[in-house]
Amino acid sequence: MAARKKSSKNSRAQLRFYSRSVVCGLCGVTEHELALWESEDLVAPARLLEHGNSLEPLYDDAALRRIRLIRSLADELEINLPGIGVILHLLEQIHR
Amino acid sequence: MEFQDYYKTLGVERTASEKEIKSAFRKLARKHHPDVNPGNKEAEKQFKQINEAYQVLSDPEKRKKYDLLGADWERGAAEEELRRRYAQQGAAGAGPGGGFRAAAPDGEDFSDFFSSFFGGGFTGGGRARGGYGGFDVNDFEPREQKAPDLNAEVQISLAEAAQGAKRRLDLTLQDDCPVCKGAGMVMQEERMGKARVVRSAKPCTNCHGAGVVPNRRTLEVTIPVGTTDGTRMRLAGQGGRGPRPELNGDLFLSVHIQPDRVFKLSGRDLRVELPVWDYEAALGAEVTVPTLGGRLSLKIPPASQTGRVMRLKGKGLPGRGKDAAGDLLYELKVLAPESLTDAERNLLRELADKQRERHVPDPRATLMR
């Protein structure tokens, strides 16, 4: 029973998405910075929501954590974007 | 590049074992290897496809994901279309190069399935950098950690240690704000099917964006009977607040017993310095003595000296669990009368004469070697 409850909670958590402006507010980054990181392939939206002809990028909790990590690396450690790319890659390898 | 059926590429059944896949790959790889077919572009292309298919199917995890998507081909295709369009228009303000490219480090294009699941960013959930072999959303999932433990001290009297005590503890903790759950922002969610989309987030008015609120808690603690000095009590779950109740920290309470005027505590034993008059010590007496539970009558044997210890077994601090109760020890301290009448002085002189007459040994003889 408890296990079922937990798994349903987890699946709910995974289905929460944030709009771009909310992500910027929550992570303390500007939309311009976020766009730059996306252009550098450091982060990407989890889903794209269709509104007529346009698509709205939506981010999940994992993306939020990744953005916060990038922000810390950039602001606190003053690492440039290629450096952050390398660090994220190494982290992925460690975690794998 | 279109989605390709990796099973078809390797010419194996969907139920093929790892061994079969490996053998099929080796066979095809030998046939289409660029060294075997120099200058043959078609063979080179096929060789790449075989390699890609083998990379996915030889890895049980990747194969599982591929099998899942294979059953949902329509969705994959629809998402591919969305991804293409997003790449064309760019994200809102995405700037040059907006959208999400998926390319191998050496510039080779992988097919869309491969990119989006193992190298690209669209359906992978946050992984953007192509060609680095994927990003599992759970990789950066911070492990839910237990909230920190707290330490507190409490002073009790000896009587409380013997009888048990109750204490009210006022604790001020920084708890996650109950309104925003520690986020510092209040999010307004919009339901979209099974998903919820947060489109606005305002600073939480309860915690003013701090995410934490001071939480004053009053805790009633029962200190059990027989608690010794320095006991560390663990109050499970009463420390820092974790994300879930089972991850709450513990509160460790150090119990100190205040020094007592009469009883000196040593472990569970209690020691009392018991003054007795010289005649009580010499003749023996029954004296009233203090204990933790009241008064008792104690027999002093005749000819007791200073330093003699009388033990009342089990009358020290009460036992707890495996520890037996301590003893109550009375250490005699023989006192000479401070004020004497002439008659009393004469009696004492008489006693001294009698002692000398019967050659009672000199008490200082051992000092004069």
In short:
The complex is a heterodimer of chains A (96) and B (369). Chain A is an alpha+beta fold and 96 residues long. Chain A has helices at residues 2-14, 20-27, 31-39, 61-75, 81-95; strands spanning 16-18, 47-51, 54-58.
Descriptive account of the structure:
The complex is a heterodimer of chains A (96) and B (369). Chain A has 96 residues and is α+β, with helices and mostly antiparallel strands. Chain A has helices at residues 2-14, 20-27, 31-39, 61-75, 81-95; strands at 16-18, 47-51, 54-58. A two-stranded antiparallel ribbon of chain A has the order 2-3. The longest helix of chain A has 15 residues, at 61-75. The radius of gyration of chain A is 15 Å and the shape is globular. Residues 1-14 of chain A have low confidence and may be disordered. By secondary structure, chain B is of the alpha+beta class. Chain B contains nine helices and 13 strands. In chain B, helix 2 runs antiparallel to helix 3. The longest helix of chain B has 17 residues, at 41-57. Chain B is elongated, with a radius of gyration of 43 Å. Residues 89-141 of chain B have low confidence and may be disordered. At the A-B interface, strand 1, helix 2, helix 3, strand 2 and strand 3 of A face helix 5, strand 3 and strand 4 of B. Strand 1 (16-18) of chain A pairs parallel with strand 4 of chain B, so a sheet runs across the interface.
